């Protein structure tokens, strides 16, 4: 197997095999390699991937080994200068971007060919030679982190920097957002309670709440942009330019030169890509969208039928029947979703990154419909506010409980059982002699893989929907969401630390497409809230003679609110002033670095003149 | 007066006095100084102001004297490397940023003190010592430009690069936009004609036209962004960062250091600025807005009264009366506008740049109301489509004729008379001896000053409004606007070349706030067009029983269209791919310029591992 080691020396990484004691069954005894790196390699890697670290003057600068001394936290040989997550990222980058330069065989696997420009690791994975690779947990750091994170049950901010240090920026941003969102909801909740307790049938308060809700949701999202910019700048991901990164492992094609960086890397002939997008991707995506919408329509019919039957004779049986369509729909979604993700993943291997986006979008739309379709139906077709309140409450509470159980406790319980098994086997194998690393490897190999923040964000997004869309009918929603998120923080933290394999860290400068999703939701919320107010009997009472007048007024108000919303979003700068200055300074300094000055001979030219009294 | 020369040597510019022959009357004989510069100074200046020029590899780079040889058009001593407009800009920049370092007297003016950090030129101007300063026309270039621009009456694109070379990017972009807008309107016009000639009462076509109008206005604006980005990149203004420029002459305060560039320049204590904005600016601006709205309301009352009287007994007298309110309003506007501009200008001297913005906004809102208020009134209050068409047509045609006359021909006529006078005086003075430069100075001193592109853009904006807002009622509007713009190009070109003083060139990367204004207008257009369609009797005929249904459907369609519009605007990238790449490359190279590489000792650290079959 040493030839496998030779293969990876291309990445200048340290690879040594972890030897297991002899065993009876061969298959449960895979070859395990520990990949490490010299600090030297890591620091050079940090320069290659273009990490930004804090400079002496407090600004963030692209790290270079040459002037490493002038970076703030660099002392001695640079031990502890890079965060755990960064080291991990650099090594993974090294493995992923390890590409065969020319056509060759994998040493020891005569049948296994490598093609130029194609990632070696991915090739090995797809051929089933490489079963899996993942970062190991760091017991001490993990203990420290989990203590400061969720062990002590006092209300405190999360240790975002520690989280980022251990799990990377992507996850840290998620938890930052979760915390921010929860705190932002508190005022909503506080205002919601009296509405719930006393007179929420009162029209003026109704409108007041809706307007507050609108302003809140806008300001909330704008301020978050600033917060995340501040965080991301401090973590160096804001200044880091996407253009400089090499393409991810999945991306392959003939080797060529990146127009921006001039580095040699697989480039995809634009014409070919265009062709593929138009011939394969677009039809595929359209088909998926069509399917999803079709399923949605079927679901609507079922829902409609169920609700009607319930109305004809409301009893327990029919009230249970109300939930059947949603359940069927949910199941169908999960299946289609799975199929879609596989397809998208497969197509993404071709190098079409936008497939995952569409894939996420479709999955997202499924969930969106699943959660809100019935509510919209109840609100605007049946116009039954009491039922709307009921279903909102039930949806919120059930989803909250289900989430906690499904996300954290069930997996944890399974985990525990697995761990016991592994421990037993280990003891049987090697009696009492202690092999800490080997044991850890055995345990973590069995753990589930964390599939990324998508599902976590989706959950928050749906909660945001519950709060904003129908808030003025059910002001208590905010309270429930706050309660949910308080537990959510703990369960998610626990999940990350003890249920899943340690995920590879992903550098992230913002929450990406989710920002857009939340903003879209807040726009839809304006429309729904206006409509709900228009529908409320109290408001209708104001215009007994004609609906027309009422509708026109509601529409007018809605347009004004939307305009106000856009102006507000436009006025609030996305990046705080002091960070704008720092970013500008970086641009300026780097442009100045291109400049020198010399002086030469004289020459006359007239252009402009003055008249003086 | 030579001490005045000494004063300006600070800017390292060449200043020499233009001597007039002895004259009888003293006052008509001011001291005239010609300010020039060495090519050396210009090239260094180009570096100081951060001009971007085309590099050998076809990308735009910040010009540096040091590696001047590696810039594309730089040959020999760099003669003709900088455009006329750039030289001008550099010299003006040199004069404007000439600031007194410490408190001192103007040599020869014991009463006239200079304060540290305050622009010398501006000080002299405000004290009336410096009467005016402006760039001279370049007879040969002007002749060449004006020939290729408007002398030959064949339909051709404007020589934007020549315009930019002579007048600078700001004006070139205006003419580029004018041309683009005109060409973009041609399809609208072509589609409009059949609508006008045949059946524009037909409902479906009606809607079709409105939808086409919507898509057109969106695509038109998005594509313009790309065009202007391409132009601005080629001219080097796109890459040029605002942050690097020193503040304009008007801006003063204690000398400090710019946080970005680190240059010493007047900085305004933030706390003080805040205080001023809140105590002076905001109330002032609010007052102005209140006034303008008040005047608008009064105008509405008058309009209302006039229209009523016209309806009571429609005859010539009352039909004339219809125009009276608008005329009065226009006059009042002009006066308030003038006052406002003075105030804004004065306040801007304090360093509040956003005053001019607000000032423009108010003036803009005046014009907007003046042009469209009556139309909106006729369309949505009176709901009289025939009258709407009439007034649209009259407004368009009259404004077209008036513009041409007021903008170009009237000033030109006055100019001619003035020139004659000047010529006579010159001859009386110095008999037949020829003093070309002196003569030119005398002539151009008398010319009017061009007040910037604001009014020109405003005119185009209003025309855009006429086309988009009520298009589906009066599809012929586009035709009229196209006709108007064809003449507009010529009259504007003529105006720039022969009616006004040559303006100082302003570097511009885009049409700035006007992009926003046009986009806002196109959004409003969606609403108005939907409303107009909803109001049309044909559509009403579809819903005989209830208006409610009709309104709901119209609102729904409107929302869909708006959503579609936003998605369209979001999907089309603002900067073409190949320019994005070039910009990214610049960033990358400049960041790389900060980097070096050294290598040192080894060190071990574990992070990540593989399992291999």
From TrEMBL, chains A, B:
Principal subcellular localization: membrane
Protein's UniProt keywords contain RNA-binding: no
Lineage of source species: Eukaryota, Metazoa, Chordata, Craniata, Vertebrata
Protein name: Anoctamin
Membrane-crossing residue ranges in chain numbering: 171-194, 206-224, 277-300, 320-342, 354-380, 392-414, 463-487, 508-535, 550-572
GO cellular component terms, semicolon-separated: plasma membrane
Keyword field: Membrane, Signal, Transmembrane, Transmembrane helix
Domain of life: Eukaryota
Compartments in which it is found: Membrane
Organism: Cyprinus carpio
Membrane topology designation: Multi-pass membrane protein
Domain Anoctamin transmembrane, chain residue ranges per copy: 163-585
């Amino acid at each position: 197997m040493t030839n496998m080691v030779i293969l990876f020396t291309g990445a200048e990484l340290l690879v040594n095999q972890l030897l297991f004691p002899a065993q009876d069954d061969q298959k449960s005894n895979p070859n395990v390699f520990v990949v490490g790196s010299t600090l030297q390699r890591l620091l050079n890697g940090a320069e290659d991937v273009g990490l930004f670290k804090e400079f002496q003057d407090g600004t963030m600068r692209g790290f270079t080994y040459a002037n490493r001394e002038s970076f703030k936290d660099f002392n001695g040989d640079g031990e502890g200068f890079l965060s755990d997550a960064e080291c991990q990222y650099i090594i993974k980058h090294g493995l992923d971007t390890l590409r065969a330069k020319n056509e060759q065989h994998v040493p020891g696997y005569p049948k296994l060919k490598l093609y130029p420009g194609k990632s070696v690791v991915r090739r090995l994975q797809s051929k089933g030679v490489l079963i899996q690779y993942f970062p190991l947990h760091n017991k001490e750091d993990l203990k420290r982190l989990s203590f400061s994170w969720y062990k002590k049950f006092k209300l405190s901010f999360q240790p975002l920097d520690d989280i980022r240090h251990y799990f990377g920026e992507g996850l840290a941003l998620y938890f930052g957002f979760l915390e921010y969102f929860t705190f932002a909801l508190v005022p909503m909740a506080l205002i919601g309670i009296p509405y719930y307790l006393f007179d929420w049938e009162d029209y003026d308060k109704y409108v007041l709440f809706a307007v507050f809700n609108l302003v809140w949701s806008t300001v909330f999202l704008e301020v978050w942009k600033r917060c995340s910019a501040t965080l991301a700048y401090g973590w160096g991901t804001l200044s880091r330019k996407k253009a400089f990164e090499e393409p991810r492992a999945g991306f392959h094609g003939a080797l060529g030169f990146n127009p921006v960086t001039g580095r040699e890397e697989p480039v995809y002939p634009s014409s070919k890509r265009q062709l593929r997008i138009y011939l394969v991707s677009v039809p595929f995506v359209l088909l998926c969208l069509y399917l999803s919408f079709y399923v949605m329509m079927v679901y609507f019919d079922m829902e409609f039928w169920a609700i009607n039957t319930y109305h004809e004779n409301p009893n327990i049986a029919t009230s249970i029947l109300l939930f059947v369509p949603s359940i069927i729909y949910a199941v169908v979604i999960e299946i289609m979703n799975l199929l879609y993700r596989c397809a998208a993943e497969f197509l993404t291997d071709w190098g079409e990154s936008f497939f995952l986006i569409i894939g996420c979008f479709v999955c997202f739309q499924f969930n969106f419909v699943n959660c809100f379709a019935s509510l919209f139906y109840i609100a605007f077709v049946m116009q039954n506010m009491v039922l709307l309140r009921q279903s909102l409450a039930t949806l919120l509470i059930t989803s909250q409980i289900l989430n906690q159980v499904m996300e954290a406790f069930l997996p944890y319980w399974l985990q525990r059982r697995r761990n016991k098994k592994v421990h037993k086997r280990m003891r049987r194998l090697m009696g009492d002699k202690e092999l800490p690393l080997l044991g850890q490897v055995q345990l973590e190999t069995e753990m589930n893989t964390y599939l990324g923040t998508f599902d976590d964000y989706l959950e928050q997004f749906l909660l945001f929907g519950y709060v904003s869309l129908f808030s003025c009918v059910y002001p208590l929603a905010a309270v429930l969401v706050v309660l949910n998120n308080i537990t959510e923080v703990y369960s998610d933290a626990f999940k990350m630390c003890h249920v899943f394999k340690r995920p590879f860290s992903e550098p992230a400068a913002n929450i990406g497409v989710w920002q857009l999703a939340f903003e879209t939701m807040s726009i839809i919320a304006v429309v729904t809230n206006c409509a709900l107010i228009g529908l409320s009997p109290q408001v209708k009472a104001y215009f007994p003679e004609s609906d027309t007048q009422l509708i026109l007024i509601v529409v007018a108000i809605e347009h004004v609110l939307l305009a106000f919303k856009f102006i507000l979003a436009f006025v609030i700068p996305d990046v705080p002033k002091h960070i704008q200055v720092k970013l500008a300074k970086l641009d300026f300094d780097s442009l100045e670095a291109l400049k020198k000055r010399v002086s030469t001979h004289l020459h006359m030219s007239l252009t402009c003149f003055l008249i003086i009294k």
